[in-house]
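Quick entry, no commentary yet.
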Amino acid sequence: MFVTVPDTVGNVGELLVNSLAQERASNRHCLLLVMESLKFLARQGCAIQGHTEKRDGNLYQLLTLRSSSDTKVFH
């Protein structure tokens, strides 16, 4: 039995390369956001971690705030 693939799918290699490029760009964006947030906290002399829970730290709270306007973060 033969399966035919429609021409609209395109080259699988190209699809994989494009997908990888998009994922890299998204990861780079998120990493830069984290690095900028760390730099900000360091300049302000603020602690990065909280005392009791993972979600009460300054870094987590800052990233949560910044991600509210950026849909690529935390997804």
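second:
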Amino acid sequence: MKPGFAIQTFKGNVFDPKTIYIDTIDIKDIAHALSNLCRYAGHCRDFYSVAEHSVLTYKIAQELWPHDLEAQWAALLHDATEAYVGDVPTPLKVLLPKFYDIEDSLAELIAKEFKIKQNKTVHKRVKTVDLMALATEAPNLFDDVSHWHQLKGIETFKHLLASVDREGVFKPRSSGDAESLFLYHFNALKRRMENEKRDI
């Protein structure tokens, strides 16, 4: 493989976006990369990682559907592809149809590796909590999101944000803390699913 035509991961694995080849899909690669990726193309008030967003999405799913472990699992890992292709903002992504093809193929590999259910119910629930996470975090990361029409009427879960000070200001986690938190919830939920004899 020619130098510069593949991506080396934190753990030394190789991802080739042309062939959608990965040496090994390692959760430590995913957690590390997501914890270093800032949401909103870096335009939020403070650094806010994709890893922390993923944990928030998972916690909302856990609160809404406490017995649906498959939806919680899928919610926690819903942005795992971004560990390999980055967090491309949706307004830009829609202009890059080939990017969707790469991301979809990568998502299939990740779903197979972590046995993420891909039925309609899980898909719908993940879409729901992802939007709820957006509605929860965005007002706490930008001065004004009143023009974000997709957030109108969406339920929020500010009590699930990592840290809110006495004045009600959200303080996002550092990348290191977000990485540790992501891995903690991944391992805890994995054990729970194994104990309940889920296919994971």
